[in-house]
Predict the 3D structure of the following.
Amino acid sequence: MIDGLLVLALLAPLVPRPPSLVPLQDTTKGKAVYVKWCAGCHGDGGAGDGPSAAHMLPRPRNFTGAIYKIRSTASGQLPTDADLMRAIDEGLPGSAMPAWKGRLSDGERRDVAGYIKTFSAFFADTSQHAAALKFSGEPGGGTGAAALKTGRQFYDSIGCRKCHGDQGRGDGPSAPTLKDDAGFPIFAADLHQSWRFRGGGSAADIYHRLRTGLDGTPMPSFSDLIDQKFLTDEQLWRLAQYVRSLSPPDPPEVRDVIHAPQIAGPAPVSPDDSAWARADRYWFPLVGQVVRKARWFAPAVTGVWVQALHDGHTLALRLSWDDRTQSPDSAWLGFEQRVLETVAGDDSGPPKAEPWPDQLAVQFPRRLPEGSGGMERPYFLMGSETDPVYQWRWTSRPRKSVAGLARGIERFDTLPGALAGQASFDHGEWRLVFTRALATPDTANEVQLEAGRAIPVAFFGWDGSSGEHGSRMAVSTWYFLALDRPTPPGVFISPVLAMLVTLGLGLVVVRRARRRGTARAGRQR
Amino acid sequence: MTAPALRRSATHPFWQAVGILVIAYIVVVWVVPLLPGSAIVPKSVVLQYMVTVLVGVLIYVSDNEERWARFKEPIEAVLAEPRLRVVRAVLLVVVTALVGLVAYGQVATTVAAPPNLRSIHPAPPAEITFRGRSITLTGLENPLRAHPESLALYLAEGKGVYYRNCLPCHGDHLDGQGHFASGFNPLPANFQDNGTIAQLTESFVFWRVAKGGPGLPREGTPWNSAMPKWEDFLTEREIWSVILFLYDQTGWTPRTWEKTGTGDGGRGTGHD
């Protein structure tokens, strides 16, 4: 014990002081930082009404209300200084709020945190100051089947599914009715994308949010259930661990080239074919179409997972993405109207909500790029009048897939002949498979899918129930698709030869060294 | 290893050489990227550094007869001594396997994305048409700077234009890391970097803003750039005011025509 204290005392100067102990002060300097870097979103008066605010969902925080999402304090309490510092340092992933660590100095970040507190009288009232809750440490075995089963039980029994849905994709029965305290529409978080959680994606972060709730939103605190002995603290941890298990262990990394291995059997046409279980998954982030009128600042489809396989004759491309609804869905029409009213665009007033379908498009150039290093290709945003792109488009209603040429966002002409597309919807996830012959007769318009080439490809997504259609969509940049050939046996010849030569040389060197060694030993004797 | 054995190896030229190589590798691969303003060292450059260090070490050890003989001792021992038979066998196998792996890596082709060779500041045209009106870029200055008394007003206007339009890509910190930036390639320009607006005249920036990605010449890969053609959204005055804001917020000063001369059309030198 004494030893431990001694060690602590010795280490103390080395350990950075927790930010909560560092006084947040100097609001004159803080004001300068605020006006320069925060006011554009949060507004000069801190009311969350800067010039960019109308384009955002979620809106920038209104500091005058002193209601904060990411806290270590009980529901309804003010955040601690450390909580504010954390939000400023790390940002709020999944929103427009950037991380300021590395962009502003330590002092500037502390000063600005002090300044935002001056927007509300609550912080000045010392009787209001709240202490951080005492959080227990994470119990082990959190990825085991037993823990996850316990977690799942409480997910069902304490009502998470009402908002977050059966599989956690934010599609619960209450989801279309949700609003935040300011009356703006709010999505129940998609629990399969923990890298977009505002307060961080680890099991501990999730546990903290379950203890504190996200104030100002419908997401409640569940600490009272522990007090009421409805569940134990450990069981709440299991729930957090279950939620964590729904997302990939690490945030998905974006890779440039989708590899489609060649398989022996026929290329799968169904999204639920077992062949997909073995195919690598590639994640591509989609962002708002903010390049052409009418722009769209609140894309609902945040990305697509892509898998590809071919059998030497046919390519199968599987796309899966999270979407809370099978649009059009009349239950979401009111929500759609509120989204359109909240997110400003290029139109003079908010458009009227209509029952738009969900859509997905995959885009290729008409021909594989030739010359100049194979770089040149049509404009990534659906080509142009003079240089169209070849696209596969799928809509949820009427349920159909077509191939055609796009000449800019506004113009799409279908090509004759059907495109094979099969889709299924499962608890907030669309799964879609397009299949097409590698070679087709219309070589002028339809890309010929040659093995061993980098084929440019791009993706576009629309969620009808968020009012998305036409230019209101989520877009990607150009990536590449490569149809791999099975490795020909000839490839192994040169490595084997190289190995034989190396081994032979090595043996010769050893033999000579040993002979010299014995000769030297003989001379010495 | 016992302490005396350790001390003996620390003064042995062979183990010193090994130590130097290991330290050099650690420095190049892990320490250099930590230095402010540097990036991860590419593999080919690491190889160059390591070869240089190896040559240096060999020159040093072979410089002195006795040192050279001692240096060779452990190598000869491994090659010849009967008691090191196991080490010898392991070395032979490992080296052979490594050569096989490297050779396989060379011949097994996998398709990679084509290189994105892109001119960052291509030559601007001498003249553009802006909403039907012709504007001569050569020698053009930001007209708003002619009214220093109204600068604060223009800056406020420019800030509004920036936050309503540019923010999702170029970001609040103007470092090209807005919340939509990750969806685009090339990434949105980083104005804090000394290689973008710091190198350019305001007329060049005006051209890039007004005409956007689609207005780039071929060497600028116009098919990839997500930069909108702001002529469709903003007035001439709004573009000049947002340009004022870019320089004011980052603290850079624009390149002036006196300094560029007339040859390079207002873009920085050595930046293509």
